[in-house]
Amino acid sequence: GRFNRRLDRAIDQNDVSQRFVGSGVFELPFGKGKRFASGAPTAVDYIIGGWQVNTITTIQTGSPLSVRGANNFTIGWPDLLRDPTLKGDARGVKKWFDTTAFANPPNFIIGNAPRTLPNTRGPGMVSMDLSAFKNFSIKERGKLEFRAEAVNFLNHVNLNNPWTTFSPNAQGVNTNASFGVITSSMKARSVQLGLRLTF
Question: Assuming Cys at both sites, which of 59, 101, 145, 187 could form a disulfide with 84, CB separation 3.0 to 4.6 Å?
Fold first, then answer.
C-alpha cells in the first residue's frame, strides 16, 4: 500500500531530456585598430569603438508532469487510463494534456498513476540573453564601464507548467477547472543599464 516504495520509482520531476546552451563573446570591429572606421576621429571612436557583445542562448525541453488527486480515502494518486500526452494542435494552454485519461480509484485503493509521467511533459524553454559592454578611459587610471543587459532578449513566451491537481467529487468527476490548464508564463524581456566606475 502506501508504504510500498516501488510506487515512487519514476523519472525525476526535474529531468530535462534535451538541453542546449550556447554562448559567445564578440568584440565589434569598429574604431581605432579595428577593421571598420579605424581612422575615425577621436570623438567618433569614443562612441563606436571598444564595444563587446555577449550572448547566452538556452533551448530545452520540458520536465515530466506529476498528476495527483483522488477522492477514495487514501494517499491521493489517481488511476491512469491511458497515455495523456497530446501533440500538435490538440495541445494548447487551455488543455495541455488529456484530462480524461485520469479516473478516481475505488475506495482505499492506491491509483496506478506513476509519480511522474515520463511522456507527458511541460512546455520547454527558449531564451536568449544579450549584453553589451564598453569601457571609457578617464585620465590615467580611471575607467568607466557601461553595461546594457537584456534577459530573454527575443521576448519569447515561455509557458509555465499546467495545473496538475485532479479533484474528483464523490462520483469521480473532476471539479478542478484549472486541471491541465496553463495560467502563467516566465518573465518577459527585461532590460537593465548600468555604469561602473573604477579608479
Answer: 101
Distances (CA, A) of 82 to 151, 193, 194: 39, 51, 53
Q: 134 pairs with which residues across the strands?
A: 51, 146
Look up residue 182 and give its DSSP letter: -
Q: Distance between CA 84 and CA 94 in Å, rounded?
A: 15
- CA nearest to 156, candidates 123, 131, 189, 124: 189
> Sign (positive/negative) of CA torsion 141, 33, 49, 155?
negative
171, 191 Cβ separation under 8 angstroms? no
In sequence order, the 6+-apart residues with CB closer than 8 A to the CB of 193 are 146, 147, 148, 149
pLDDT, tens digit (0-9, with 9 covering 90-100), for 59-106: 999 999 999 999 998 889 999 999 999 999 999 999 999 999 999 999
pLDDT (tens digit per residue) in 6-31: 666 778 888 899 999 999 999 888 87
Residues 6+ apart with CB under 8 A from 130: 53, 54, 55, 149, 150, 153
What pTM was computed for the model? 0.79
